[in-house]
Every structure is written in C-alpha cells, then in structure tokens.
Write a structure and sequence with these properties.
The complex is a heterodimer of chains A (336) and B (213). Chain A is built from 16 helices and nine strands. With 336 residues, chain A is an alpha/beta fold. Chain B folds into two domains: 79 residues, Methionine synthase domain (Methyltransferase, Methionine Synthase (B12-binding Domains), Chain A, domain 1, Orthogonal Bundle); 122 residues, Cobalamin-binding domain (Rossmann fold, 3-Layer(aba) Sandwich), CATH 3.40.50. Chain B has a five-stranded parallel sheet with strand order 2-1-3-4-5, with helices on both faces. Classes of the chains: A alpha/beta (336), B alpha/beta (213). Chain B: Keywords: Cobalt, Metal-binding, Methyltransferase, Transferase.
Chain lengths: 336, 213
C-alpha cells in the first residue's frame, strides 16, 4: 500500500491493510508549550483564530511527526455557541466555562446560525485551511462534543449527574435529546469542510457513571449520532471504560480512543475486530513526568497489543516535553 | 426504633432526599437519642454508600443523591443538638488548588466527610497557595485536603506543602491529596501525609489521621 500518513491512518481506522508501521495520531490535543514556541502560535489565539488554529494543528504533523492533525484544542467551542461564558484561558490554562446557562433544565435554545457562531466557524475554517495544506497527505480529524458532555456544560456536571441519581430520567432524557442536533450539524459541517474523521467526545466516563447508565441514556443516542453523521466517527470517553467496551463497539462508531487504564491487550482481544482502538499512552505519569524511554516502552506495548492507532490517551498536559511526544513517533516508526 | 433506623438507612442509601424528612421527624418525636440517630442510622448508611462506591456497585450519580439525602437529614437534626452533642470528629480544610476549577471529586469528599461527622471548611476551587496558607494559620484545621484534576495543576500541591514548611506550619496539619492524575507515589514524593483514591478512601484516611494525631 501507499504509505502516506493519510493512508496509514485511514486504513488503520477501518482495521484494513497494514503498512510497515502503525500510524500515530491524537484525536484530542497534542499542543504543548514547546510546540507553541516552535511555531510562534499559542493559546488563547489558537482557540479563536482559524489561521492560528490550523498552524498549531499542522505542527503536530510537521514538527512532531504525527500522521493526523486535529485543530480543535478546547472542549468549549459548542458551549460558547450555546451561551456559556467561556474564559479562553492562556498559555498555561485551557479554556473553561464560567457559568451553566441551563442549570434549571429549562428548554435549550439552539441558535439558527449555530455553525456561524464565532467559536464554531473558527474550527470549520481551520479544517478548510488544513485541507488545502495537507489534504490527502495527513488525516484531518475534527472534534465534536456529544450530548452527554454538552449536558455537563449546560447544567453543570454535578447537577446533571445528580438528576440521574435522583431518578429524574425524564429530565435527563430531555436534555440529551435537545442537544442532539449540535454534534450532528457540527460533525457534518466538518466533513463538508474537509475532515477525514470526527471525534465524538462524550464523557460518560468509567469514573463517573455506570455501564448500565451509559446503555440506558446514551447508547441509543450514540447509535443515532453515528447513523446521522456522514463520515467515520471516533468515540472518546475518558477514564477506565474496560467495563463498557462492548457497549461502545455496539454504538456504530469506527474507533474508540481510550485511556491508559483500559488494558490495550484486553481491549484488542474483546472488541478489536469490531472497532479500531486508539491510544493509550498515559499522560500524567508517562508523557508529562516520564522519560522518552518510558514513553517508548508504553508505545511498544500498545503496538504489540494490536492497538490500531498509537496515541496519547487524551489531550496532553501543556508542559509535556516535545521529545516525549516524538518518542511515540519513534516507537511507531520501528514498525510492527 | 430498629425499623425506623432501617427506613432512614434505606432512604439515604438509595438516595431519596424527598423521603428522608418523614422518618427522621418520627424518630425525633419518638425521643430517639439524637447521637444514636446520627451514628447508627445516618453515618452508618453513608459508610455503606462509600463501600458500594469503592466496590463500583454504585457510581457518582447515586452517591450525589445519597449525600443530598444525608445533608437534608442532618439539617433537620443539627438545630436540636446541644453543644455537648455537637462534637465533630475532626476539622478538615479542603480546596481544589490554584489553576484548577474542577470540583466534583472534591465536593464528593466534602459530602462524605460531613456525612462521617467531620467539620469541613470548603474553600472552593482555584485557591492560591497564599490564601490557603493564611487560612491554615487562622483556622488551624487538623487536616488539609488538596484536590486537582489537571496534570498541569499537580505541582501546586507541592508548592502548598513547601510553603507550609517555610511558614513553620507543616507540623500542625496533616496534608492529604487526591484527584484523577494523583497517586500514592506522587503523594509520597511531595511529602504529603496521605492519598485517597476516592471519596470513601479519603474518609478512611481522615479517620486514621485524626486518631493518630
């Protein structure tokens, strides 16, 4: 096969032909201080300006050597468009929402011009810019928040989870249902703008909710999402989700981006034939505080386990050393 | 009384705050000793909630609902307690460190500690080292709890401990740490007195530390 970054990534995404090595990509952010310094573009500019966003994403491919680019570094683009006040942070801090506009669970107003809201348009424009620069050479990944994560942003995480605990099923279903058009419209616009795949980040994480709660509230919605989004979908859920891998595999997604708590070997054995697996190098201990040798070992473990696309487990800490990110690439370039 | 305690336990464990008032009022009217009501029915129930959470039989939503029921129940009893009955198990000052605004884990710890009879002062999120040290000096808690979800804010925990040392306050307070990126090894390395992987472990840790102190 033709061994471009693009081909390796797309083939691995569908568990297809293997080239001489596994691809490396992070469906979530790989931005760190050293990368910002290298390209002269940083936060918060890269959340708000399409050119800056695209340049920083591109550096993941051109400077670090990852096979995919992903330009959406924050998780608050949609929240801002839906009326959250977002503090866009700075060089050392990721953006954060300052209020929860629907903590009373009143009907959610989704603006007519959702995709033209500045925080949404900037991502679509950045994807178009990336398409012009690396389309067909490196894979371009877009990112949308699923209804569960959006509910955290709309009502507050604790408040939303409490409704589940109180058995207010109707309230929970209603909020999730209302938020469904947001990821569908955003993801489809990303494909039209030039994305090759879209990450659906939906934090029904192993540390917060049970597999039964995922199955009851979210799995039917994920099935709807994957059927209505016209392109490959990668699911990202943080935490130890070993107890719900089969449910993810039944959601219609093409891949699952997992954290280090999920054992790579176990995950591949259980669902690797149904969906591709992406991950799962530990961020806090290994990428952030470890040595390139530590990173290399974990990457080789993931490769030996049959993980399809090698990646950090989640958005990397901003102080992650660049050489640690490069150690993932080095491990992958040694081949299978 | 046994049946009434069972009912209160059951309402708290299954997280039904709307139903907690009636059996507690009945217990109060029946003249049940309040300390027994708190310990044998309510704190005992929260111990069970903690056990189920650690065993992953329940998750955060259920724990939040139980904590809400507990809080509501305690608010009915507290005004009736005399000074001598209102003895706390210990005092804990707690916050999420500077640069970090994630508070759900910290809030769970607060709820479980209060449920276990500790007096908790919650400083909230994004708390500077200076503000925290000042509060330690002023309120002299037995335990200081530090939380962080972000890997970027973990180093703040170390700064807190170093500043407490520099200010001569480190011997007066036990420092415990927690949060998703934190582990036992990190706690040891920065010189903390303990680490709890979840809210139930944090409670067990605090009980142990105040016994030793």
């Amino acid at each position: 096969m033709k061994e471009s970054s693009y081909s390796l990534f797309m083939s691995a995404l569908f568990n297809g032909r293997k080239g001489s090595r596994p691809p490396v990509a992070n469906p979530t952010s790989i931005v760190c201080h050293e990368l910002m310094d290298r390209v002269g573009v940083g936060f918060p500019e890269a959340h708000l300006n399409a050119q800056a966003m695209a340049e920083l994403a591109l550096a993941g491919h051109e400077v670090v050597g990852f096979d995919a680019v992903m330009p959406e570094f924050s998780v608050h683009q949609e929240a801002a468009a839906l009326g959250c006040q977002v503090d866009w942070g700075n060089r050392n801090a990721m953006p954060d929402a300052k209020n929860f506009p629907y903590e009373d669970f009143s009907p959610i107003h989704i603006p007519e011009n959702l995709l033209e809201r500045p925080s949404m348009r900037v991502v679509l424009d950045a994807i178009s810019i990336l398409r012009r620069h690396v389309g067909g050479r490196a894979a371009i990944i877009g990112k949308v928040m699923g209804p569960w994560t959006l509910a955290y942003h709309m009502a507050g995480t604790q408040n939303f989870l409490l409704q589940i605990g109180l058995g207010e099923d109707e309230v929970v279903h209603r909020m999730l249902r209302q938020l469904m058009p947001v990821p569908i419209r955003f993801a489809n616009a990303m494909f039209q703008a030039g994305a090759d795949a879209v990450v659906l980040a939906d934090h029904a994480t192993g540390n917060l909710v049970s597999p039964a709660q995922y199955e009851k509230f979210l799995l039917p919605l994920h099935r709807e999402l994957t059927s209505q989004i016209h392109g490959p979908v990668i699911l990202h859920v943080c935490g130890n989700c070993s107890d719900r891998l089969e449910l993810f595999a039944a959601s219609g997604v093409d891949a699952y981006h997992m954290e280090w708590q999920v054992d790579a070997k176990d995950a591949v054995a259980r669902v690797g034939h149904l969906i591709s697996l992406i991950g799962n190098i530990n961020n806090p201990q290994t990428l952030y505080q470890g040595t390139p040798e530590d990173v290399y070992k974990q990457a080789r473990y993931a490769i030996a386990s049959g993980v399809h696309i090698i990646a950090p487990e989640c958005a990397v800490p901003l102080a992650t050393p660049l050489e640690n990110l490069k150690a993932i690439v080095a491990a992958a370039h040694e081949g299978y | 009384m046994h049946e009434l305690f069972q009912e209160i336990r059951s309402v708290i464990i299954s997280g039904r705050p709307k139903e907690v008032e009636a059996p507690i009022q009945r217990a109060i009217e029946a003249g049940v000793p309040l300390d027994r009501l708190i310990h044998e029915a309510m704190i005992d129930a929260m111990d069970e909630v903690g056990r189920r959470f650690t065993a992953q039989e329940i998750f955060v939503p259920e724990m939040l609902a139980s904590a809400m029921a507990m809080k509501k129940g305690l608010s009915l009893i507290k005004p009736l307690l005399t000074a001598s009955q209102n003895v706390s198990r210990g005092t804990v000052l707690i916050c999420t460190v500077k640069g970090d605004i994630h508070d759900i884990g910290k809030n769970l710890v607060v709820m479980m500690l209060e449920g276990a009879g500790f007096q908790v002062m919650d400083l909230g999120v994004d708390v500077t080292v200076e503000a925290l040290v000042e509060k330690v000096r002023e309120s002299r808690p037995q335990i200081l709890g530090l939380s962080a979800l972000l890997t970027t804010t973990m180093p703040e925990m170390k700064r807190v401990i170093e500043t407490l040392e520099a200010e001569g306050l480190r011997d007066q307070v036990k420092v415990i740490v927690g949060g998703a990126p934190v582990d036992e090894a990190f706690a040891l390395r920065i010189g903390a007195d303990g680490y709890g992987a979840d809210a139930a472990q944090a409670v067990a840790l605090c009980k142990k530390l105040v016994e030793v102190a």
